[in-house]
């Protein structure tokens, strides 16, 4: 009889080592590195190199830090009708510069509302994401070549879009896009036009050379 640990323990040790390789090893993800927490889990989804979770998180944090207080953003006492077209243009240009982070979150909120309120659009997005994911996995296994050219990430996204196009058409994606842009222009344009400039903003405008 051979010495050492029993077969049952050997089996458990082998399974533990494989689990460690699956959830903690860097080489378990062909295009990224291992990690802890949510970032590590998302990294193991084999996301394309250009779609970095850290980059998106950094962009979101920058926007969140530069956002203006919402109480001041919607303060009705600071809204008035512009006296002339010149003041209207000044307000729009300056308010877009000052409240660009607030406007960005309004735009994202309208997109989220449009997606949540349309189940078919959710299905279309799921089809697009699934098609892109499968195509990208295939490209990791072996290079995908069409007409002598390798499919890059933009090409893969375009192919996934072409596959999911009928579903988007059935979901009325075109109308949804026009609604989002129309609502965004109306909300942001109205706020930028009627929101009075702060005292510091007026001083900056007066100091600008003509």
UniProtKB/TrEMBL annotation:
<protein>
    <recommendedName>
        <fullName>PRA1 family protein</fullName>
    </recommendedName>
</protein>
<keyword id="KW-0812">Transmembrane</keyword>
<keyword id="KW-1133">Transmembrane helix</keyword>
<feature type="transmembrane region" description="Helical">
    <location>
        <begin position="167"/>
        <end position="188"/>
    </location>
</feature>
<dbReference type="GO" id="GO:0016020">
    <property type="term" value="C:membrane"/>
</dbReference>
<feature type="transmembrane region" description="Helical">
    <location>
        <begin position="105"/>
        <end position="135"/>
    </location>
</feature>
<dbReference type="GO" id="GO:0008021">
    <property type="term" value="C:synaptic vesicle"/>
</dbReference>
<dbReference type="GO" id="GO:0005794">
    <property type="term" value="C:Golgi apparatus"/>
</dbReference>
<dbReference type="InterPro" id="IPR004895">
    <property type="entry name" value="Prenylated_rab_accept_PRA1"/>
</dbReference>
<comment type="similarity">
    <text>Belongs to the PRA1 family.</text>
</comment>
<dbReference type="Pfam" id="PF03208">
    <property type="entry name" value="PRA1"/>
</dbReference>
<keyword id="KW-0472">Membrane</keyword>
